[in-house]
Amino acid sequence: MDGTPNDGYGTNDGYDASDDGASEDGVRDDSAPAGGPGPDVIVIGAGPAGENVAGRCAQAGLAVAIVERELVGGECSYWGCIPSKTLLRPGEVLAAARRVPGAAAAVTGSVEAAAAFARRDEMVAGYTDDGQVPWLRDRGVELVRGVARLTGRPREVRVTLTGGGQRLLVASRAVVLAAGTRATVPPVPGLADAEPWDNRSATGARQVPRRLVVLGGGAVGSELAQAFRRLGSETVTLVEGAPRLLAREEEFASDEVRTAFAAEGITVLVDTRAVAVRREPVQPGQPRPEVTVRVVGPAGESELVADEILVAAGRTPATDDLGLTAFGLRPGGFVEVDDQLRARAVPEGWLYAVGDVNGRALLTHLGKYQARIAADVITGRRDIVGQPARDLADGRAVPRVTFTDPQVSAVGLTERAAREAGLAVRAVRVPTGGVAGASVRGTDAVGTSMLVVDENRRVLVGATFTGADTQELVHAATVAIVGEVPVDRLWHAVPAFPTVSEVWLRLLEEYGL
Amino acid sequence: MDGTPNDGYGTNDGYDASDDGASEDGVRDDSAPAGGPGPDVIVIGAGPAGENVAGRCAQAGLAVAIVERELVGGECSYWGCIPSKTLLRPGEVLAAARRVPGAAAAVTGSVEAAAAFARRDEMVAGYTDDGQVPWLRDRGVELVRGVARLTGRPREVRVTLTGGGQRLLVASRAVVLAAGTRATVPPVPGLADAEPWDNRSATGARQVPRRLVVLGGGAVGSELAQAFRRLGSETVTLVEGAPRLLAREEEFASDEVRTAFAAEGITVLVDTRAVAVRREPVQPGQPRPEVTVRVVGPAGESELVADEILVAAGRTPATDDLGLTAFGLRPGGFVEVDDQLRARAVPEGWLYAVGDVNGRALLTHLGKYQARIAADVITGRRDIVGQPARDLADGRAVPRVTFTDPQVSAVGLTERAAREAGLAVRAVRVPTGGVAGASVRGTDAVGTSMLVVDENRRVLVGATFTGADTQELVHAATVAIVGEVPVDRLWHAVPAFPTVSEVWLRLLEEYGL
């Protein structure tokens, strides 16, 4: 790290990023195709996925232009993973210390919200992209600031420049959509008028609301509910329409997070939906009026009163204004792609979509992965055995970590998803807290570890690890799935004692090895 | 966990252990071969390795007797990994919290030694094995408390019983040596007379010495030096004869630990050896007199004065009194074994040695692994393709974690060891602290991650991860090595963002993928 905390997060990680302050401008107002040669590749959106596809194409020698309407670094760097994990970390590490006799007594305070917000500001570089731009420049990628739209002609993009004017870009090879998503605001009467928080307002908060209602119990809602409870919210109520939190993970994960939330005073209402939201108009300069949320659940209707309401009810692709109609794609929809990240609907394969915008897996790391694959397809790079690049992870080995405490870290298929996919699987589970490695880290170790094994091939197809700080346990499972390492061979991969990774030994014993 | 923290640590982990208080005695004083059928297997030593070989043989239906002269659970459970990691943890978690803005201000104290010692006492179950014995009993293993010695006839063991008397045991199949090791006291004049601490006295300490000298900068010496510094020792001086700490790990690991030690006031003297030790005789009931250590190093001779001197200068196999001579084995030496854990020198293959006593890898997890393999060899269990069990980990995929802060977590070969083994390797490295996942966990993230790739086979042969809390990063590398997953395939194993496991992505990019 070079002292600029957010250098290239989401794409690169700063240690090799220079920050020499040169300007990327000077590409302003040519409104017709450039007189000189155009770029080989145009990338729309400079979030993690866009940056990576641009950087990798440029490093292979292609001329690349990337168009960004907001900040280079995208949602993840400023309004997503980075600030949310930064806000969660103080509560997590203090909870960890309180579980350690010999350390617990040294913790006399609770999370200091002002300091956490200040660190968040540092991590998002004050919501400027000065730290990220050099990464593109160093790779020779041309940054065009503005709003891009496909013209309807192949490989042609018109940019309404941020500084005024327009510019027409024509790519010789490919256009890559990496426009990302934004928070979905569900059509609950009164909700939009109530000026609800979304991931941007929540991760960017400068005050801790005394009472917070969160709509949506997926990863974003669950994480932020706990973050604000630990930052000091007196009441946090999480409203989830499904019967459980984190509905796409194993059921025990949902149960364990819910139990932990209950223990720290977070109210979870499942099978419950908001039906009406009311807030008096917000007046500039005045305190925001309280908000009333009418919910319907198993116990009937009731009203929640809060200071803020956070919407964490899924993501909507930012494709409504990209000029997709001309190519038979639905504005506002996800852009369906093949395993080479090409838009299926578009002939000749010049249009790619990477990251959230293709709807495959709305996760920064998968977006970056798709970006690397797409770049290799565009540049014609082949793998060691001469095969063209293709996406081998999506749908098969997608890791995801929910950074609640306990954490939920998983990869591949849940047991249910595997059965629904027609696989003959056997799942085994052990308590994560049952290994010595968990006990030496503190008292009251919780959690469950599970492997899902395809019995025909005797390879893993899924794994879940819940508990304190399980985030690094999952990569071993990802390697095992992607490497198709048979469980009989995994038996010889010895976990170190006393680490929490010894759950691997217990799991394979439980499996019968 | 069922509330008995040390249930079966080192072998099992308590969550399935019953603790019903029944006695395992009643096998006392028959001094001739039993009238009834003897055991199939005799195991000498009930540490982690012994327990595991006994338990696994018994679960396969064999009659097993295990002989223990001290406590069931062995060195690791009472005087090794468990107490040392328990004493390190408070300092580690407080250091972690101090690096997190938003949490740091809540940490107003330092490590409370009395509470750490109390937790240690809990983790070692007050130095009783009541929590471990049921694990053996549940598996039908007969526990014989006493000192075992091979008689000189095949498969025959005489036990001098702890309660008095002798008992002769004759195994129908196998005898397994799992006698472990003890601290080596090097022949420094005056050292033995100075009543130095070893791992037992140090991990069992009830007071923090004001001034501590540690002889030996391997994992044990380095860990305990830092543990006591953080528990409150005013001066800690680590004396190491080699040019660096942790001499068998990558050089950067040694450098980083040394830098960290310097920053927290631990003096490290390398290329330095103790040549004389003096202490006035220790009088019972009186304060222990201070100890003077004469050392010779690059700057000549000097004297260190301390309150305790800890010897962490390697391990000596506990084989001096096992009756080895009759079988051509050297008393006091390691028992060399083949890949099925059979003593090479002994015909007919009835004598096995597992764990520290065979000298292959003095690590609890490897001892347990060897135990599982040996049990499968003894019981004739074959793997999925019909092959007899054999040790595939030793010498190839041995993970080890030094629980200092920063941690040093490694598996397989170092770059140097790989070259010395004649492999054409290429090593790549990146800063562990350079990924976003490290920065969201706190400021000042340090460390280095390295992969060593066999260029002919394009598979990993080694990996090292240094930094805060890298202990769970290494298992992914162990899986990759054991699974022989080509780096081109590892490229598709996507680490989750923002976890520290993203060093995998950076490393493979650095490699050229």
Work out the oligomeric state of the chains in this entry: homodimer
Instruction: Report the C-alpha radius of gyration of chain A, rounded.
Output: 24 Å
As a percent range, the share of strand residues of chain A is: 15-25%
Give the strand line-up of the largest sheet of chain A. 5-4-3-2-1-6-16
Structural classification of chain A: alpha/beta
Task: Please characterize this protein's 3D structure.
2 copies of one chain form a homodimer. By secondary structure, chain A is of the alpha/beta class. Chain A folds into 4 domains: 41-73 and 129-182 and 316-379, FAD/NAD(P)-binding domain (3-Layer(bba) Sandwich), CATH 3.50.50; 78-123, no CATH class; 192-313, FAD/NAD(P)-binding domain (3-Layer(bba) Sandwich), CATH 3.50.50; 406-511, Enolase-like, domain 1 (2-Layer Sandwich). Chain A has 14 helices and 21 strands. Chain A has helices spanning 48-59, 74-79, 81-98, 113-123, 133-138, 199-203, 219-231, 251-263, 364-379, 415-420, 436-439, 474-482, 487-490, 503-511, and strands spanning 41-44, 64-68, 142-150, 156-161, 166-170, 174-177, 181-183, 211-215, 235-239, 266-269, 273-279, 291-297, 300-306, 308-311, 315-317, 351-353, 399-402, 407-412, 425-431, 448-454, 459-467. In chain A, the strands form 5 sheets. Chain A has a 7-stranded mixed beta sheet with strand order 5-4-3-2-1-6-16. A 5-stranded antiparallel beta sheet of chain A has the order 17-18-21-20-19, sandwiched between helices. In chain A, strand 9, helix 8 and strand 10 form a beta-alpha-beta unit. In chain A, helix 1 (48-59) runs parallel beside helix 9 and helix 3 (81-98) crosses helix 4 (113-123). The first copy, chain A, is globular. Residues 1-35 of chain A have low confidence and may be disordered. The interface between A and B is large, with 105 and 105 residues.
